[in-house]
Amino acid sequence: TVFRASTTAPVNIAVIKYWGKRDATLNLPTNSSLSVTLSQRSLRTVTTASCSASYPASEGDTLTLNGSLQDISSSKRTLACLASLRVLRNELESANPSLPALSTYPLRIVSENNFPTAAGLASSAAGFAALVRAIANLYELPQSPTELSRIARQGSGSACRSLQGGYVAWRSGTKEDGSDSIAEEIAPASHWPEMRALILVVSAEKKDVPSTEGMQTTVKTSPLFATRAERIVPGRMTAIETAIHNRDFPAFADLTMRDSNNFHACCLDSEPPIFYLNDVSRAAIRLVNDINHVAGKTVAAYTFDAGPNAVIYYLDDVSEIVAGTFKAILGEGLDGWEGPFGDRLKGVS
Ligand code: DP6
Prior knowledge:
The protein is α+β, with helices and mostly antiparallel strands. It is built from 8 helices and 15 strands.
């Protein structure tokens, strides 16, 4: 018998950024962060997990990502997720001996992204969230998404925010064992149904400095970073939760843009400096400023992760203005883009 479960997980884009670890082994962040989960109609990872007593033990657990077999023997993060999930399954099996001993079978995990991997489009977030969810389903684990977020966090920090929809806060926690470093949904997507995200694929190439490495450099070398983590982010977390609660777009947008800029300022303040934004990214920033200026109020917000691609947040009533302006002015310079409803406008033809 082969036991099998499939699932999908969405991409999340932080509006208050996670950047910096207080514990690199347990993957605990220096500061809390908050993200918006994108619709699965646009970017997502699809993962199938299976296990069987008939899978050769000599092959061990395997992970195939976008058609190519990965070497997980050296991937501490993947191994940590698999080990934690097995412990939970084992607890179930001990409590109920009639259950098949799935925790002892080799696992086969097959995962596909419908977007460029490692291009700063949060592929690790959706990837590890889908891996954890698929195996949790396969193992019929009773744990809640928040409880599973502790496991996904070990795969990739941002992944802990992709197990739930809507607006998700990852509380940094203070405990050394990380047991209080968990993600929780602060509002479902239906709370603010007018929210839209436009993804500008400025470059689909792999990013220069992977986020794990970049954030370590920042923590070690940037004097600005301590101010960010201690004095800037805590207030912004509270303020953006209030903005989301009140559906106050200008406040949400202001905090989002400031936090993206502060994160990239910390990158620039690192030694050696880390550059994620390029000329097209900067043009996108200016265009958002121009759109807001012409509108006479804040109707659009930009944010950038560890790469040049922009995510633009806005509300549905200004879709034409925002998406239309971007397409007309920046369309030629992009590798592609994703519309707000998952309509792929790749190539901008
Ligand atoms: C800029 O979650 O990729 O996207 O925990 O080392 O895997 P690791 O880092 P990762 O970092 C994401 C950084 C960010 C900001 C964010 O998503 O909050």
